[in-house]
Design brief:
With 445 residues, the chain is an alpha/beta fold. The chain has a single domain, classed as Amidase signature (AS) domain (Amidase signature (AS) enzymes). The chain contains 15 helices and 11 strands. The chain has an 11-stranded mixed sheet with strand order 1-3-2-4-6-5-10-11-9-7-8, sandwiched between helices. Helix 9 crosses helix 11 and helix 9 packs across helix 12 (347-364). The longest helix has 18 residues, at 260-277. Bound molecules: glutamine. Residues 123-126, 149, 168-173, 201, 299, 396 line the site of glutamine (GLN).
């Protein structure tokens, strides 16, 4: 049953919002027994809110588009009265002072916040292992990492512990865990969804987006959270564009950057789709060779700057004293790069590279309507297995370009390689989010 149908059932009284919350509560208890580490905190007002929605339905009052649906929220998004810990000791006891704009919008449509999910500390990571409160396990295979940094949000959807979840994506953190957990993850265009109330990793890259069981569900949630917001000046309404007929798909050449079998599966899926839907395919090269260097350099600098407020005086503990190694690496690295900046050696060059990447996408999208590539270039490693920093960062090579260019990108389940879930990624030009979702729906079928 998709989410629209579930809302209909709730509004018609066939299913109560209360039962919906209680069923997820039971499922979460089971998953806690298995130590899946998916939620960090549950919302104890959820039952009360569900009853209130049921009462309004019984009274024949108007209810919202998401009436009675239960949402799991990444722990770097403000939900008033709940902790926004970023899965860090630094903010362990920090309670959100207000609702993020996306949360306000969800509440206005009568969604119920189930709780806050586990993640990589301050969203720095691709495996979920940098959480200060135990790593999340992958519901598809508890031996493996679920991906990150929105690990708990993807796992919650995958394990059936919520109707949908919110994550944030700076360089792939929605799409990457979606890929490993076999769910849909959508990163909107920069500026399509308000970041007000999101604790930033890197402000010029971050976007909030949905994790769901289907593209249709992602569309439903996106249509609620998107749009211009007075609290975030970078936001705007999206243009409504006409769907084109004879589409051209750009199949990205990932030969030197991706596991052979994963690339093969994505190619096969794309060719089948193109054949059935009479689309043309063009082979396309993206600047993948400069993706990681450009991304990490800029993210280190922006993150260093963003963390200066965690000085131990106003919010939680002093970050350098309480954070884990990955966060510390970025703070020290970001500080060194910033210090060296009067030479104009690093940051300014990375900004130039970012511009170049944007221009490349603009050129490419003159000839193709959508780009298709794998979401993650390799299969997930075993939880707890030590991998090098380079190998950890290499998980991001196929996702960071979308954030650098500010374009929308979605990961949908593509099938399995060696019995492990693999995601297919689709990208579209900036602000073509609606068209991307429509196309992805067709692809999903
Ligand atoms: N893995 C990437 C990083 O560590 C992306 C993180 C994210 O999107 N939040 O920076």
């Amino acid at each position: 049953m998709n989410l629209k149908e579930k809302v209909k059932q709730i509004k018609s009284g066939k299913l109560s919002a209360l039962k919906n919350v209680e069923d997820f509560g039971t499922a979460i208890e089971q998953s806690n027994k298995k130590k899946m580490n998916i939620f960090l905190e549950l919302n104890h007002r959820a039952i009360e809110q569900a009853k209130e929605i049921d009462d309004r339905i019984k009274a024949g009052d108007k209810t919202g588009k998401l009436a009675g649906l239960c949402v799991a929220v990444k722990s770097n998004i403000f939900v008033k009265h709940l902790a926004a810990s970023c899965a860090s000791k630094v903010l362990e006891n920090y309670i959100s002072p207000y609702d993020a704009s996306v949360i306000t919008k969800l509440k206005e449509e009568d969604a119920i916040i189930l709780g806050m999910t586990n993640m990589d500390e301050f969203a720095c990571g691709s495996s979920g292992e940098s959480s200060a409160f135990n790593p999340t396990k992958n519901p598809k295979n508890p031996q493996l990492i679920p991906g990150g940094s929105s690990s708990g949000s993807a796992a919650a959807v995958s394990a059936g512990l919520c109707d949908f979840a919110l994550g944030s994506d700076t360089g792939g953190s929605i799409r990457n865990p979606a890929s490993h957990c076999g769910v849909v993850g959508f990163k909107p265009s920069n500026g399509a969804v308000s970041r007000y109330g999101l604790i930033d990793l890197a402000m010029s890259f971050d976007q909030i987006g949905p994790l769901t069981s289907s593209v249709e569900d992602a569309e439903l949630v996106f249509n609620v959270i998107k749009g211009q917001d007075n609290f975030d000046a970078t936001t705007q309404e999206l243009p409504v564009l006409k769907e084109k007929k004879n589409l051209t798909i750009g199949l990205v050449n990932v030969k030197d950057f991706c596991d052979h079998e994963i690339a093969g599966l994505i190619k096969e899926k794309t060719e089948n789709f193109a054949h059935k839907n009479e689309c043309k395919i063009k082979s396309v090269n993206l600047p993948l060779d400069i993706a990681l260097e450009t991304y990490y350099l800029l993210v280190y600098v922006e993150f260093f700057s963003a963390t200066r407020k965690f000085d131990g005086r106003r919010f939680g503990l002093k970050i350098e004293e309480a954070c884990g190694p990955e966060v510390l690496r970025r703070i020290i690295g970001g500080s060194e790069i910033s210090k060296a900046e009067y030479h104009g050696k690093y940051y300014r060059n990375a900004l130039k590279a970012r511009n170049y990447i944007k221009q490349q996408f603009e050129k490419i999208f003159q000839n193709v309507d959508f780009l298709i590539l794998p979401t993650v270039p390799k299969l997930p490693h075993k939880l707890g297995e030590t991998i090098s920093i380079e190998d950890m960062y290499a998980y991001d090579v196929l996702t960071v370009l979308a954030n650098l260019a500010g374009i929308p990108a979605i990961s949908i389940p593509a099938g399995e390689v060696e019995g492990v879930d693999v995601g297919l990624q689709i990208m579209a030009p900036r602000f073509c989010d609606y068209l991307l979702l429509k196309f992805a729906k067709k692809f999903e079928k």
